[in-house]
Specification:
Elements lengths: L1 H29 L12 H8 L1 H35 L1 H15 L2 H12 L4 H8 L12 H27 L3 H9 L4 H12 L1 H15 L3 H8 L10 H10 L3 H32 L1
Length: 278
């Protein structure tokens, strides 16, 4: 036990110094004025909740998660199940889906910029065909483009995680089901999906972390103030940091930390409740 604690101490010290202490400072700043050390109570939090940019960024981020996360999880799970059965061809297709992970974010943003800006390739093609150009990044299309880019970029990562979970399911179960007359679709819903529950929580958390990285592509293409449909939480925090609004930035960070922690805990409790029922 003591030897195990000795191995844990360096990691715990690192978490305390680089994670817990800075976050404690953020909590402290959220209750104080931007200049000086005057305690202002919950006024920073009230100001944040009344801020229109905060409400817009929060709604957009929640909407993006609610739309993109189910699509990412379902599509990647179905593709992972298909690739598992394809064997040799599946290994080649797996490399195809993993390719976007190797593409740098800046390259994706440059391609996105060349394709969808007002003078980009698509609008040039439309004008050549005699059609009206579309302001892709200054309309509701911006949200669809950002969602599609996120799915393309992260699909391979989730496929790999699902395939790892599928390979951990004993082959004997599938063989017994095939002998009883179960086909691929029935085996998928009756064997694959129920046995992937241990992997489900991990994949959800990792995918949620990747959702918050989508800001990079939006920022590189549209800057600090993109179309309102893709104005995300990270845009808000980045702009407040640039403006040195430390009081509002700290309060918003605490609010978002509480929201994300609550979602993770509730989701974990739901999974634990289902396990006990089973």
């Amino acid at each position: 036990m003591r030897k195990g604690m000795c191995f844990l101490i360096p990691g715990m010290v690192g978490i305390g110094v680089f994670k817990l202490i800075p976050f404690a400072r953020v909590v402290y700043n959220s209750f104080h004025s931007m200049i000086g050390t005057q305690n202002v109570g919950f006024s920073n939090y009230m100001e944040v909740f009344q801020n229109e940019a905060f409400r817009l960024a929060t709604v957009n981020t929640i909407l993006f998660i609610m739309i993109v996360m189910p699509l990412l999880l379902i599509i990647s799970l179905v593709i992972a199940a298909i690739l598992t059965h394809l064997k040799r061809l599946g290994r080649w297709l797996q490399k195809f889906f993993l390719f976007p992970m190797a593409v740098p974010v800046v390259s994706v943003a440059l391609f996105w910029h060349a394709l969808f800006t007002d003078q980009g390739f698509l609008n040039s093609l439309f004008m050549w065909m005699g059609l009206q150009p579309v302001s892709w990044m200054n309309s509701r299309w911006a949200f669809i483009i950002l969602a599609g880019t996120f799915l393309w970029k992260n699909l391979g990562y989730d496929i790999l995680l699902w395939m790892i979970g599928i390979h951990m399911i004993p082959r004997e179960i599938y063989e017994a089901a095939m002998m009883d007359g179960a086909g691929y679709i029935k085996s998928f819903f009756r064997i694959t999906v129920p046995n992937l529950k241990p992997s489900f929580f991990v994949i959800i958390v990792l995918s949620l972390m990747n959702v918050f990285k989508v800001y990079r592509e939006a920022f590189l293409v549209a800057g600090n103030y993109p179309h309102e449909s893709i104005y995300m939480i990270q845009h808000l925090l980045s702009n407040w940091f640039r403006e040195l609004s430390i009081d509002k930035l700290s309060a918003a960070s605490v609010i978002y930390a509480i929201m994300i922690s609550a979602v993770v805990v509730i989701f974990w409790k739901c999974l634990e409740g289902r396990k006990h029922k089973e």
